[in-house]
């Protein structure tokens, strides 16, 4: 019992390590954010603004313990969203000055529209649309009692946000030295680490290491996160050419490298015991990869490495050519066993050659991204995929929550109703940035409650004794400093940011004195009720369920396969676009499984994700084969049958029988193509048939081994 208590105490103490032993970056973040808060408060009080607390609140909205590029991007889009919201607020008030129902419905529609757009955008562009929604609501509900003051209120609130954003950015810039070169170095370090991890995974897969295959999806997930951060590095490296485009190309190539290596490991597992002389090249390739890792660690030029890589690629190509020509006319060329093994050799050599070709692209793009002075016209981007179902749900949630809030205000006539609605709009708009809106609501509600309690303590006991700004600043170090340190902890970030924001509001900094008790309690009730109302609304309208979201994402992946199998070659996505689409869906799935202790379920999802990725890439290859003129029509008909079976396998009809028939059709196609490859005289057709067999092996294996993931129950 004593040991358990000791262990519990140690665990509890460790959970507060962020407070008593914070990291250096957290201390710097807290220090600069406090300075920015003090600067804007002094300016706002000196200029005798009507509500200085909005200026310091703006600092905590934009504050973020992250790279400088993220802070710059966040500040930019907050300003854009603020200006947009102000313009729309003036238009709404001018259009419906005496029509309260139309006014309230229009505000709800505007916030819902902002939620919809933000759900279909990425990074801080989404936050910009969120800002456009709730800045408009704040201006409108602050001036709803006197529409003639709307313009002045818009200018006032807009000035506060501008002042807070500019002060925070100016303070943060004081801590950034030589930003361009540091950002370029950080980006190159991240890219090199991704490339090294990819090469290590490939090296393990050459040995048939199943664990490396299983872990490759984790690297793909980290690549997605790094790819999203390139936008922020580009802001830091402004004026340095197309480094960001080359960095995206590197990450896309690493993703392709992992997928092709996974396919190679499947080929190796299926046919490695039925080959002629393939295994001799595996040690050569592994030796080369080890040398490559050593050169990358030393930062050596990649020119000599690329020469050795091309030699390996040509060796694979020569072996493929030899298998066609070397033994023509010899007695063993007509032997069925020899022919089968020769075909298996060609499949493995071609698969390895594709890996080496992708590695060549990766190293060349990495070399270009390292060149700080490179100015070219290279462009590289992948079209993002949008979750319109989630966007519509966020919009509908926000609309009904705000509409019901307005109805409650109309019924009760509460004098703090406009404040309650302003914060309700703010919460509803911010919640759409999160996949789990209910969890975001809880964070918002907890942060607001903590702010009310701490704000009440300061307002009733501390503020009456404050007589000058210096003393106020000293007393503010503890509550805001703790909030800043907590914002650096991912599990506390949402609660801490809400707490810091509302604490500044509850304290109500002003030249004329502190907030009186009645006003404080009324404001506290408005803040509390906005959190309760938002939480209740998000529980009622499309409540979050992890299991249902996982099922929807699986259906989305299967429908993607369905559309790939039905599409013509002209409308097919690029392989890297498909990899990006599946990887993004997988990141969402894994976030739902972070707290799940069912390791078999997590393993099923991880392998299922990689299976969908492999099937999709090989469907794209087969579609191109069908639409080209090299193959004869009878071969194309077999491929069309396979594609048609997969197109029927779209998730809604993914029961046992359709799945089993799809696997069976793929296996039969492989058998028929092996016979055809043995008897075919046209060399070009034989090459295409070999490629088709290679793709069908991967498709059949992925379908067969991931049945539990691919069969989605209704």
From TrEMBL:
InterPro entries: PHBA_efflux_AaeB/fusaric-R (IPR006726)
Listed transmembrane segments: 26-47, 75-94, 100-119, 126-145, 394-411, 417-434, 441-461, 467-485, 492-511, 523-542
Full protein name: Uncharacterized membrane protein YccC (YccC)
Keyword Magnesium carried by entry: no
Keywords associated with the record: Membrane, Transmembrane, Transmembrane helix
């Amino acid at each position: 019992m004593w040991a358990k208590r000791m262990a519990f105490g140690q665990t509890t103490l460790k959970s507060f390590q962020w407070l008593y032993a914070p990291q250096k970056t957290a201390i710097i973040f807290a220090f600069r954010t406090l300075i920015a808060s003090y600067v804007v408060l002094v300016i706002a009080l000196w200029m005798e603004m009507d509500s200085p607390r909005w200026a310091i609140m703006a600092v905590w909205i934009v504050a973020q313990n992250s790279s400088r590029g993220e802070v710059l991007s966040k500040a930019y889009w907050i300003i854009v969203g603020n200006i947009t919201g102000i313009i729309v607020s003036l238009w709404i008030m001018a259009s419906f000055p005496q029509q309260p129902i139309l006014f309230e419905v229009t505000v709800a529609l505007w916030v819902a529209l902002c939620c919809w757009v933000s759900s279909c955008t990425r990074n801080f562009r989404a936050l910009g649309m969120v800002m456009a929604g709730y800045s408009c609501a704040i201006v409108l509900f602050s001036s709803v009692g006197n529409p003639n003051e709307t313009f002045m209120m818009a200018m006032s609130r807009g000035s506060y946000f501008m002042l807070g954003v500019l002060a925070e950015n100016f303070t943060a810039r004081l801590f950034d030295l030589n930003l361009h070169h540091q950002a370029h170095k950080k980006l190159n370090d991240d890219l090199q680490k991704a490339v090294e991890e990819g090469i290590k995974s490939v090296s393990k897969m050459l040995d048939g290491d199943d664990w490396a295959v299983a872990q490759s999806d984790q690297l793909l997930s980290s690549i997605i996160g790094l790819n999203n951060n390139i936008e922020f590095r580009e802001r830091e490296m402004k004026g340095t050419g197309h480094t960001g485009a080359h960095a995206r190309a590197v990450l896309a190539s690493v993703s392709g490298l992992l997928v092709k290596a996974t396919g190679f490991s499947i080929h190796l597992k299926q046919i490695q015991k039925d080959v002629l002389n393939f295994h001799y090249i595996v040690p050569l390739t592994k030796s080369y990869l080890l040398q490559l890792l050593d050169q990358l660690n030393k930062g050596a030029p990649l020119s000599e490495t690329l020469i050795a890589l091309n030699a390996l690629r040509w060796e694979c190509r020569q072996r493929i050519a030899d298998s066609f020509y070397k033994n023509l006319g010899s007695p063993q060329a007509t032997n069925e066993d020899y022919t089968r093994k020769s075909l298996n050799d060609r499949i493995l050599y071609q698969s390895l050659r594709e890996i080496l070709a992708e590695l060549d692209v990766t190293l060349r793009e990495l070399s270009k991204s390292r060149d700080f002075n490179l100015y070219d016209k290279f462009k590289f981007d992948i079209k993002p995929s949008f979750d319109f179902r989630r966007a519509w749900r966020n919009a509908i949630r926000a609309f009904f929550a705000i509409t019901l809030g307005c109805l409650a205000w109309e019924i009760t006539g509460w004098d703090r109703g406009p404040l309650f609605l302003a914060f309700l709009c703010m919460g509803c708009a911010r919640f759409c940035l999160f996949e789990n809106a209910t969890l975001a609501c809880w964070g918002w509600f907890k942060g607001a409650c903590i702010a009310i309690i701490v704000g009440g303590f300061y307002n009733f006991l501390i503020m009456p004794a404050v007589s000058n700004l210096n003393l106020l600043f000293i007393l503010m170090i503890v509550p805001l400093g703790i909030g800043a340190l907590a914002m650096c902890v991912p599990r506390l970030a949402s609660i801490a940011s809400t707490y810091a924001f509302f604490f500044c509001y509850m304290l109500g900094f002003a030249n004329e004195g502190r907030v009186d008790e009645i006003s404080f309690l009324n404001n506290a009730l408005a803040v509390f009720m906005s959190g309760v109302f938002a939480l209740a609304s998000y529980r009622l309208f499309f409540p979050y369920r992890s299991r249902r979201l996982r099922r929807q994402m699986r259906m989305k992946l299967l429908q993607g396969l369905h559309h790939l199998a039905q599409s013509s070659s002209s409308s097919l996505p690029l392989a890297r676009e498909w990899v990006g689409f599946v990887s993004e869906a997988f990141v969402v799935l894994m976030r739902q499984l972070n707290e799940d202790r069912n390791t078999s379920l997590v393993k099923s999802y991880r392998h299922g994700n990689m299976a969908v990725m492999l099937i999709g890439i090989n469907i794209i290859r087969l579609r191109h084969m069908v639409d080209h003129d090299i193959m004869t029509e009878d071969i194309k008909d077999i491929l069309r049958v396979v594609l048609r079976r997969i197109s029927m396998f779209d998730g809604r009809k993914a029961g046992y029988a359709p799945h089993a028939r799809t696997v069976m059709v793929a296996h039969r196609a492989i058998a028929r193509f092996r016979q055809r490859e043995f008897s075919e005289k046209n060399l070009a057709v034989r090459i295409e048939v070999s490629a088709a067999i290679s793709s069908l092996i991967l498709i059949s294996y992925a379908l067969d081994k991931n049945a539990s993931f691919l069969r989605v129950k209704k």
